[in-house]
Specification:
The protein is α/β, with parallel strands linked by helices and about 375 residues long. Helices cover about 35% and strands about 30% of the residues. Helix 6 (about 240-250) crosses helix 7 (about 255-265).
């Protein structure tokens, strides 16, 4: 019997101001095996970045020196884990700084891919907070529409200042790593599910569509993947801190106490664990922030369906640290007309991880590790 060829994939490093997640997998004939993983979560920013009540502040208000100090701590964690936790090789794929990413939708005349790449920086002039000609720009063609009796295509541009990307890469390379790729969070989180779709049996109904919702502390990304393609992404300035704030206001308590309460609800709700009935009851009473989540998700689905000629959504998968709160996912999902679940990215790509925890917060890091997977 011939031995299956094994391909060691790069270390996926998802690093931002909230946390660091690292994942490395190995591939053999379409099957993935976990090599190693590691995570560190930062406490809410304090002092010059937060306020007296311990709230996360808006990223734009965080002082540059505070951001750099946190990134320095994150890189120290990566350096230590690369030498201590079983990661192999020096190749890595990183995410670009999330606070530098701008997602901008534009409507353009249909054109060939190479023409679109050339025309997009001109179309983005005046629509970004930086010069698009000095940026790294990637795009997604969401679909075609009719406007003024003309066919146009909706294009979603993802742009980051080039100097910010280069600075970030240089800093991580100083850890002794070889950076072989860089990705953005809303696309990278889709890759585990795109990989799974590419290695699944073909369906007579055609490829299915997934809504992927990544809930972070301050921001949420919504993406829609159909088969092996990412068809839509959107960033929303809404995250778990909105829920913490609403809980603190409802209970007339501090943000710190509200976080502790939510952490207690999450404890014991891992794979097979029960969901706190108290949490469900309280979340059902906090209508405003959860209603915003529902509205944003439904808006994305309506937009996608209008471009995809009525293509339906098979299910909604919640990812990111916020998805660990299964009671929150259940309450948000109860207001949506599509089946919802807590994402298990490692489980989605590997049968060997079928009995492990869901770990929805690892979706981006796993997606980055899948760079170059076949």
């Amino acid at each position: 019997m011939a031995l299956r060829k094994r391909i060691l994939l790069p270390i996926g490093i998802h690093l931002n101001l909230e946390s660091v997640h690292m994942v490395q997998v190995e591939q053999a004939e379409g099957s993935l095996t976990l090599v190693s993983k590691a995570s560190m979560v930062f406490p809410p920013l304090e002092g010059g970045a937060g306020d007296a009540n311990g709230r996360w502040t808006e990223i734009a208000k965080i002082a540059p020196e505070v951001k750099e100090n946190r990134y320095r701590q994150a890189r120290d964690f990566v350096r230590h884990r690369c030498s201590a936790d079983g990661f192999r090789g020096k190749q890595a794929v990183i995410n670009v700084p999330a606070e530098q990413l701008v997602i901008q939708q534009v409507r353009m005349a249909p054109m060939q891919p190479e023409e679109l790449m050339s025309a997009l920086p001109w179309e983005l002039q005046g629509k970004l907070p930086f010069d698009p000609k000095q940026a790294v720009v990637r795009h997604i063609v969401a679909g075609t529409v009719s406007e003024d009796n003309q066919t146009k295509q909706d294009v979603i541009a993802l742009a980051v200042p080039r100097d910010a990307v280069e600075k970030h890469i240089r800093a991580v390379e100083k850890l002794g790593l070889e950076i072989v790729g860089a990705g953005v969070e809303p696309c990278a989180m889709c890759y585990p599910y795109i990989f799974a779709a590419g290695h699944a049996a073909a369906s007579p109904e055609g490829p299915g569509s997934l809504v992927l919702v990544h809930i972070g502390a301050l921001a949420t990304y919504v993406a829609i993947a159909r088969g092996e393609e990412t068809r839509f992404v959107k960033g929303v300035t809404l995250g778990m801190e909105s829920v913490v704030q609403a809980l603190a206001d409802a209970r007339k308590t501090s943000m710190e106490q509200a976080r502790a309460t939510m952490s207690g609800w999450c404890a014991g709700t891992g794979s097979g664990g029960s969901i706190s009935a108290e949490a469900v009851e309280v979340y059902n009473q906090i209508r405003k922030p959860l209603g915003h989540f529902v509205d944003e998700i439904e808006s994305c689905i309506r937009y996608y369906s209008s471009l995809a000629r009525g293509a339906g959504i098979d299910r909604i998968v919640f990812l990111g640290p916020g998805a660990r709160d299964r009671a929150l996912v259940q309450v948000i999902g109860s207001h949506l007309s599509v089946p919802c679940e807590v994402g298990a990215p490692l489980r989605a790509t590997s049968q060997a991880e079928a009995d492990g925890e869901a770990e929805p917060e690892l979706a981006v890091a796993l997606g980055l590790s899948l760079f170059g997977a076949q």
